[in-house]
Amino acid sequence: MEKRRMDAALLVLILGHLAIALEVPLDLPQPPTITHQSPKDYIIDPRENITIHCEAKGKPHPSFSWTKDGTHFRIEEDPRVTMKPHSGTLVVDISMMRAENYEGVFQCTARNNHGTAVSNNIVIRQSRSPLWSKEKNRPIVVQEGVSLVLPCRPPAGLPPPIVFWMDNNFQKLPQSRRVSQSLNGDLYFSNVRREDSRNDYICYARFTHTQTIQQKQPITVRVLNLDSINDTMAAFYNDTDLFSEAPMDERKPTFLIPPGSSSSMRVLRGHVLEMECIAEGLPTPEVSWSKVSGELPSRRTSFLHFNKTLRITKVSESDDGVYRCTARNQFGSVDHTISVSVKAAPYWISGPPKNLVLAPGENGVLTCRASGIPKPLITWTMNGIPIENSPTDESRKVEDDVIIFTDVQTGSSAVYQCNVSNEYGYLLSNAFVNVLSEPPRVMTPSNKIYQVIKNHPALLDCASFGSPLPKITWFRDLSASTLNGDNYIFHDNGTIEIPVAQAQNSGKYMCVATNALGISKNHVHLEVKEPTRIQKQREKTKTVQKGRSVVFECKVNHDETLFPTMTWLKDNGELPDEERFVVGSDSLTIVDVTESDAGMYTCIMNTTLDHDSATTELNVVEKPDPPTDLELTDQTKRSVQLTWTPGDEHNSPIQKFLIQYEDSLHHRGHWHNLTEVPGTMTTAHLKLSPYVHYTFRVFALNAVGYSNASSPSKMYKTDPAAPDENPAGVHGIGTEHDNLVISWKPLSNLQSNGPGLHYKVSWRQKKLGAEWATQNVSSNSKFTVSGTPTFSPYEIKVQAVNNYGAGPEPAVVLGFSGEDLPIGTPDNVKAVVINSTLAKILWDAVPHNSIRGHLKGYKVYYWRKHGMHKHNPDHMEKDILSFSGNHTHGMLPGLHPFSAYLFHVRVYNGKGEGPPSPTQHFKTPEGAPGPPTSLEVAKTDLDSLTLNWSPPLEHNGHITGYTLKYQPVNNSNELGPEEELALAANETSVTLPILKYSKRYKFLLSAKTSSGAGPAVSQEAAVSDEGNTQTSHPFAWSPPLRPLHKARPMSPFTNVTYSLEEDGALISWDYWGPEKNIYVEYTVDSKGVEDWQKEPANGSQNVKLKGLKVGLSYKVRVVAEGHHDQQLHYKELFVTVPAVASRQVDIATQGWFIGLMCAIALLILILLIICFIQRNKGGKYPVKEKEDAHTDPEFQPMKDDDCTFVEYSDNEDHKPLKGSRTPSNGTVKRDDSDDSLVDYGEGGDGQFNEDGSFIGQYSGKSSCRDNAEGPESSEAPSPINAMNSLNSFV
């Protein structure tokens, strides 16, 4: 027997690799295969039709039959049962029949001429949700502290119901370590309390299959102490269950369930193991779990119901053993052990048997390897018939859990059933043996495209079928060599795997399937794509203030052929459906953020091949809520304890609390900072001052800002006391030579400590035997002591005093009485000349008693008496240099060379300067001269140039000569060889021959003294063919900032000129240098500080300077600026704006003036015509009569509404208006006539000069007046006044 087993095992090893499970194409003959069936335990809903599934495939298509409870089920005899076409699925109509009539064990059979397959035994049971039995629950009265169990005992249903406890309002009853529900549904109280009393403990049972809920009658519980029980015994005796007659004290735990010290239970492999231990005791015990025989499986273990239930999922054989639960409180502990034995229904070890497809003459094996506890029994059937009752087949051999096939022949096809069973269940599996001769065929679609992400595995399928089993070979593109090596993995089903796909793996692949009957090829394509990656954000957390906006970015890099879609999640759920959430193409914006928006935001980028995600946490912060519940405790005279309750910190921890106070006694309505405490504290010990009425408030600060102020605390008043401190900042300084002003910083109201605050001021002269003088000062912060000696030291002290006493002894401060002007002069004053522009002044210090004050320093007064050159005028303006502190020397810079100077020295203090020292003098040596004043270039003939110049303004010594340098300049602005001429000191012109190879020259002229050469003045000249000389400007001279040297390049500016126009001066030039930044700067030519103003050229070669003032001369520079704002080149000239305009315009020839004069003449003519018409109408003006009688009955006023003249007639003959003349100055002189133009003025307001000339202005229009006492005056238009008005306008 043992030898047979070894032979069978060896045969399996030899032949096993020949048997590969293949999917047979449905166009080929094959036995039936069950593809779908109902579950083994099938619970049906009695309200719906019964559907029992049985689907199978095969070639030819199988037929179906059923058995019920082991007996053939005649479908055709029951009109309520139908079988679906081309299917074995049964549909039972139970609308007119009870469902329990169809309860039982059903099995489906599918057969064709190649074999028979059978389904599992399908047990049909009707779901049940029976009603709760009618019962009356009497109230339960228990003593406080005892344990209690409220039974549920729901009706047995199918499947069992889910039990839970609720109240009348359908709210779940709260559960805790003390009160919890057991696995069977009962409600356990480890100990009861008075608050457990209620009349609506209701147990509910929910039947999931029928979706119904049933309710148990409410249970009433009354928890009383012993006295209450005695008082109510009679009232509830007849209808109440009484428990725990003896009083209950605190006690150690005991177990309510399970009872006893040990128990056992059984669980099946793969199921869920639930063990519970519920203990009673007072105080409420805590329950813990352990495994006696090993460790708890941490990944599969959980503790439920407040640690009272131990739950282990996916139970395996390793979970077999002893478990211990321990209940413990402060009075002791108790243990209970549970022995768990693990059993197992049959389960497959390596999967169910697989179908065999064999070619004639091939070998194969069917394996049915399973296990279980206890070990299961394995039986074989063939086409639903026990194999021992099946026809004999020499090629088949059964060995326990395997069937070995050797040299199979056509016609040996059949379906074999393997049944594995023990007391806990069974396994049934169908596997067919199909004997076929079939050439290979590739089942994978032709030219299928596989897309994979770079660095991921790539699997290329070559699903094939053939009998015998085809061999699969892979090729790349058009390569003739097969694929092999470590870069590829070949699977038994023909699939080739590239473990780490790269871009170079993209391309076309070919698989070839071959067997003895033929060959089949197929092509597939592989595309390797770049991965989708979200650009990672630096910040994993965003913090935003409530009410503001926040933006989450989600930028992605992806393969250009893939199109990602973006999805946003909040806390792994959908975003809220609100308009505040705005999803952009690569971002999420939340506007007006609220606190509910806080959470985890995830951006998911999906493509058809891969995805990537990024998560950012959003914290919504806001300034904290104000503290509440301010309370004052530990109150003393000088301190108080302030406590408060912090407000909501809104996700931003409170950093500190700020405490402020209001002094309603001295400064009502004003709050002051008192102290700060860390944000972790809610108490502050506050030091207080006397005589203050305190009210406190508290602010909380977090990262967002300060909260609003808390509500004020109650007022706390401190008692008055003597001052604790004296004034600070005590000083003693005299304002006059005979006084001492004592000042201090007064105490604040908070520092006064009581009413009647004043200051005790004491002083004494700092000398031996001096006594203190004292003065009380109120409502002031200074006191003046008169009659003091000049600048004497005093000791000073100021003490604070109020109605309750004096402050501490004050510190003594040193002060000085007032200063007076010094009376001493510096001695031994002398000068040491260092060079032509610098001298050192030395002196002896003035004695301290002669200074009569605080020494501030010394002042040196010096002035240039005259230059030592005949051309230099005298300069008597004095300069002053101050040297602070106790100096005895000082330097005088910036002196004029070759000059005589006078100087003296004064000492000065805080009051002023002392008398001068005797005046001394010194002389400066010669220095380099200034540039020549001017340089002019003139052409005398075709072969020479004449240069004229003027000596320097500043000789700075004796001029010993001039140096002239000149160079030709070609058209490329390149300089030729330099020539140099030495000229005598008395020369002011020179004639130079013009070389033929150049028409333009650069000249540099400098003067020199014995000290050296001074700066040069430059000029350029261009010579035309006609012999005319063109210079940049005949009056332009250009003193550089420093002397010109040979190494310095010549200026690139040429032809620098200016012209005066109506709106400014136009500066023009030619420039051939490389610098791009060109500008013009100008300043008023003066001896003072030069205030240069800048105008950029902006790429042009001219700039107009506007706003120049007439009568002033301006110094103008054209500057080329290099890097770092360095002036590399500049050209300088002077521009003088004349006081009279440079161009006089003849106004008589201007068109506007001619037009204006014509308009005036026309207006005068019209006015004369109007006057003539008025006179002819009788509108004469009897001036004399009007003077005699101011009112005229016939005189008509102007209309009130439009202020126009109305026509009137004069019944009397009036004298004509006498002629008048218009003087050249535009005034009207009164002649001898009695008629007066003033009579026709407004209210007689006309005025005359002493010579009788009229000075009133006539505007040419009339005005309305409201005059109730007399008639209004009329005013005739006057051509003379109109002319005057026009003249004044012009």
Automatic annotation (TrEMBL):
InterPro entries xref list: FN3_dom, FN3_sf, Ig-like_dom, Ig-like_dom_sf, Ig-like_fold, Ig_I-set, Ig_sub, Ig_sub2
Q: Where is the Fibronectin type-III domain?
A: 626-721, 723-820, 825-927, 931-1027
* Pfam families membership: Bravo_FIGEY (PF13882), fn3 (PF00041), I-set (PF07679), ig (PF00047), Ig_3 (PF13927)
Reply yes or no: does the keyword NAD apply: no
Give the region (Disordered) as residue ranges. Answer: 913-932, 1209-1290
One Gene Ontology term from the biological process aspect of the record: brain development
Regions annotated as coiled coil: none
Q: Which cell locations does it reside in? A: Cell membrane
UniProt topology in membrane: Single-pass type I membrane protein
| Top-level lineage group | Eukaryota
Signal sequence, renumbered to the chain? 1-21
Q: Which residues cross the membrane?
A: 1152-1173
Q: Which GO terms describe its molecular function?
A: cell-cell adhesion mediator activity
User: Does the keyword section mention Transmembrane?
Assistant: yes
Family label: Belongs to the immunoglobulin superfamily. L1/neurofascin/NgCAM family.
Q: Which protein are we looking at?
A: Neuronal cell adhesion molecule
Q: Which organism's genome codes for this protein?
A: Kryptolebias marmoratus (Mangrove killifish)
